[in-house]
Amino acid sequence: MSARTLSRIGERSFIVVMLAFFLLPFLWLASTAYKPSRDIFSIPPKLTFTPTFEQFATVFHLFDVWSLVSSSLLIAGGSVILSLLLGVPAGYALARSTSRYAIAVAYFFMAIRMVPAVAALIPFYLMMRDIGLLGSWIAVVLINAMLNSAFVTWMMFSYFRSLPKELEEAALTDGCTLFGAFWRVALPAVRSGVVASTLFCLMFSWNDFLYPMFLTRLDSKPISVALLSAYGTKDITWGTLGALAHFSTIPIVLIVLFLNRYFVQGLTKGIH
Fold it and tell me: Residue 24 has what pLDDT?
């Protein structure tokens, strides 16, 4: 057996081991949603069992699942739209700036996204209380948009900076306004960056737990907060948690799988 073949076998074996390491906990959690409660922690563990939907029946009995999913969609969708409306033009303006501090400012926007969640929560909580938005999903949309638009600005700065200025100069020569050159030429040329930014913001907002936990009421909480209900004072109802996890993870996983090539490009794109 050649050294190249051995190397290929070793690489594939390593990939399989790593996939098993990261995916087995999630597969176990997903399988608990279809196990009878008595079989979840049976000793020895049962690898084969008769699937049941009793955990899902319990979830639909205890929770208004569609209201939770709707709140998650409203929060994630509103945050993404507002973040793009603010971040994309800001990234373009920063990329076309002639200031020598443009890159430093771009990294400053990136640093905003690194602010600890609790540090931003306390003053924002007081602000939302004073203006009467505390308890609504709008408060969560605003704080997510504040943080995510800074991230979008940093990412779109990278994309627009790699775009040749000659494209926009040609559009201006043909009679376009500055906004027309941005809208008709620059923005379509970086649509992969817009999609990547959308995916990042969507994941940040959909998976957010801390801000919805403290800024929303019971009737406006998303499904990420509802997962906490599976944790009781004496034990964890793993079957309920597994069933709720389906509604929390499947939508975002499907979206990312469908647009994964843009997501990977967004990860590998750097500041030029």
Answer: 83
